[in-house]
Amino acid sequence: MLRSCVFSLVRHLTTISSSTCRPSLCLLQATNTRSVWSTGQEPRRSTYLQDALTPDEIQTASSAVKGYMSASGVDDPRFVAVSLKEPKPNIDEPPKRQAEVLVLNPSTGIATEMLVQGDEVISSEDLPLGTQPMLTPADCDLAESISKSSEEVQRALKERYDITDMDKVVGDPWSVHLASEEDRLLVEGDGKPKRLVQTFLYQRMEGEGMECNHYAHPIDILPIVDLNSKSVVRIDGLDRLPAPKVPTDSVNYHRNLLHTNSYLETQWRPRMKDLSIVQKDGPSFNVSDNNLVDWQGWSIRVGFNYREGLVLQDIKYKGRPIMNRASLVEMAVPYGDPSAPFTRKCAFDVGDYGLGYCANSLELGCDCLGHIHYFDVCMADEFGNPSVKKKAICMHEEDTGVLFKHVEYRNGHNESRRSRELVISSIATVVNYEYLFYWRFKLDGSIEFEIKLSGELSTNLTSSGEDPNHPSHGVLVAPGVNAQTHQHMFCCRLDMSIDGEKNTVSEVDIVAEDSPYGNAFGPVETVLKKEQDAVRLYDANKARSWKISNAEGKLNSITGKPTAFKLVPFTSGAAGPTVLTHDTSSVSKKGAFAQAHLWVTPFDEKERYPAGEYTPQSLEQDGLPKWIKGNRNLEAENIVLWHSFGVTHVPRVEDFPIMNVEHTGFTLKPDGFFDGNPAIDIAPDVNKGSKLNTPGCCSS
């Protein structure tokens, strides 16, 4: 599962003038034959402090930085990011809007953090020599270009495989995870630090363009490039002689190449009958200025940035606060193959590449069904210019079956209500892998975060000495093609505010009690008082959950206990382990957040990312393990939950050539937040569009 923003994503970012990059909030409705756009007047861009930077603000900030650096003799800074410096939540005197700018000096390789207010750079700090910010889409494009244009790489491909057409060669760019002393030596050198990318090579064999599933044709050599010197610094795998053969079977899913398949289906099955989602009266949600969404008592402010992608803020139910902010803040993706060079095959997708930069422009009637509201987003390109990504966020409603039902068996009376959810989603393509993110707001007052994983497996040839038909650290998914066992470990940052800013977290286990008849069991609640007490593992045998309670005196009128929500892990997909790499491995050290399912810290605006601000080529442990050393108080504090969860993926043959979605996720459920079922006021309704399949089979 590859980790760099696919180079073609650069082409989906359209540089535009500031007058055309305002977020347009467009409604689209899908019918069974066509898509209909209905657009209103573009909303005025207000000065709500947590709104993403406007195009004018991005342009002004980047111009200020260019002028500042030009005065120091740097005329061609490479922009990594221009984004809003978010203010603290619920402050009495809000500050002026500021931009955080991260730039690279190409001549020295030094990265600089800048803070810009208006058209003035108010602070500038160079990062320590060798600190590497994330790889942008332009960096990924450049890495592949350097690799494929290298005479040394071209010569190796010619000599080993008789490959001369470099247009048929693909170089998937990955950050370089420094797993060994040999890896660490790669970054050393005199003068300019190295900014490394490893490019896993494949060959396109079918089709004329990019349609071919090149993961069916892996090549065994691995060039490592330095973006600063724009050169190949090493090629791994050249010592393997004779060179193994590149697999040649056609294993394609692309609509233009299905007919070429060597052993899978070559023709379409009969088309299924139409199933349309039609809302003739339109949606039940409203979107006002500042991207504020209202739906069935819920209010949510929709945001986005280059690193986390989709961000939700100011989440409330009928005016009662629940969360200040919610987002996915990191991913660790280790591969479990100890053979070189796969010891360094790992990535931190959020910190290494940025989910915002990797976000898709979504397709009506395919990625999203029904009456759809899209949000466009603006980010900066490598030159600091504002760029728009169309339809990066999708919002729609979904029917999800029965919400509640009871039949009075004595007289047959039925009370039943359908369940509907508001779904706010975004999809990121990280080269070969798709991550589909869904925040679901429910009529029962719950919030679910679901991640679906799809795309293509990152494949390789079996290592030297392995049985080519029985790889020791993977699964043969096509003739000669190995897919390695790996994990996807996610971490969400949840800034809680249950009925107010002061909250307390407790762990709730369901345990058996001693009783005369042996039938007693129930919940046992333990308050997590300090940070180091709050590094916790999920336990399915105890139905473990974590309760977040108000600590400002807000009590439930029925129970007399503090109003609360609870975090229930793994409500989507199978429950999974923490990261499986050994404690001594560099993955476990850098990705320590994945060694526990829960961490809790008091809010600190500087504590944003659980593996630290800068993950590429990082060696020192940063983030959560460092922050909790102070063992700060957690009772009656503005607390932040860091929930880690994920998927352990042992590939299956059925995952190739493209993977049907895997699921994982969690739910925040009200637990004494309401005085009863919050959905009992939903009026009864019967769907008039439903029909009997066989007329006369049943009485109506």
From TrEMBL:
<keyword id="KW-0479">Metal-binding</keyword>
<feature type="domain" description="Copper amine oxidase N3-terminal">
    <location>
        <begin position="133"/>
        <end position="236"/>
    </location>
</feature>
<feature type="active site" description="Schiff-base intermediate with substrate; via topaquinone">
    <location>
        <position position="433"/>
    </location>
</feature>
<dbReference type="Pfam" id="PF02728">
    <property type="entry name" value="Cu_amine_oxidN3"/>
</dbReference>
<feature type="domain" description="Copper amine oxidase catalytic">
    <location>
        <begin position="276"/>
        <end position="680"/>
    </location>
</feature>
<dbReference type="InterPro" id="IPR016182">
    <property type="entry name" value="Cu_amine_oxidase_N-reg"/>
</dbReference>
<keyword id="KW-0464">Manganese</keyword>
<dbReference type="GO" id="GO:0005507">
    <property type="term" value="F:copper ion binding"/>
</dbReference>
<keyword id="KW-0186">Copper</keyword>
<comment type="similarity">
    <text>Belongs to the copper/topaquinone oxidase family.</text>
</comment>
<keyword id="KW-0560">Oxidoreductase</keyword>
<dbReference type="InterPro" id="IPR015802">
    <property type="entry name" value="Cu_amine_oxidase_N3"/>
</dbReference>
<feature type="active site" description="Proton acceptor">
    <location>
        <position position="349"/>
    </location>
</feature>
<dbReference type="InterPro" id="IPR000269">
    <property type="entry name" value="Cu_amine_oxidase"/>
</dbReference>
<dbReference type="InterPro" id="IPR015798">
    <property type="entry name" value="Cu_amine_oxidase_C"/>
</dbReference>
<comment type="subunit">
    <text>Homodimer.</text>
</comment>
<keyword id="KW-0801">TPQ</keyword>
<dbReference type="InterPro" id="IPR049948">
    <property type="entry name" value="Cu_Am_ox_TPQ-bd"/>
</dbReference>
<dbReference type="Pfam" id="PF01179">
    <property type="entry name" value="Cu_amine_oxid"/>
</dbReference>
<dbReference type="GO" id="GO:0009308">
    <property type="term" value="P:amine metabolic process"/>
</dbReference>
<feature type="modified residue" description="2',4',5'-topaquinone">
    <location>
        <position position="433"/>
    </location>
</feature>
<dbReference type="GO" id="GO:0048038">
    <property type="term" value="F:quinone binding"/>
</dbReference>
<dbReference type="InterPro" id="IPR036460">
    <property type="entry name" value="Cu_amine_oxidase_C_sf"/>
</dbReference>
<protein>
    <recommendedName>
        <fullName>Amine oxidase</fullName>
        <ecNumber>1.4.3.-</ecNumber>
    </recommendedName>
</protein>
<dbReference type="GO" id="GO:0008131">
    <property type="term" value="F:primary methylamine oxidase activity"/>
</dbReference>
